Amino acid sequence: MAKIEIFTKATCPYCHRAKALLNSKGAAFSEIAIDGDAQQREVMIARSGRTTVPQIFIDGQHIGGCDDLHALDARGGLDPLL
């Protein structure tokens, strides 16, 4: 089973869409909420090079954000990673 990490904020609609896609696939993931957590936000930025949420990692590989995750799924690349 893949190790999936997703950095999120509670009020982020893109975070909810990304989690909904992963849930629809039955994929278990660790959610790392960065709301008010400057240290976790810095970890996310250091790992992804991006400041926006969500940031998604599968087995340590940076997938990107919500649109990146959906695009990966649309071209059939997500299921093999899960």
TrEMBL record:
One of its GO terms (cellular component) is cytoplasm. CDD domains: GRX_GRXb_1_3_like. This is Glutaredoxin. Residues 4-63 form the Glutaredoxin domain. Gene3D superfamilies: Glutaredoxin. InterPro entries: GLR_AS, Glutaredoxin, Glutaredoxin_subgr, GRX_bact, Thioredoxin-like_sf. It comes from Rouxiella aceris. Transmembrane segments: none annotated.
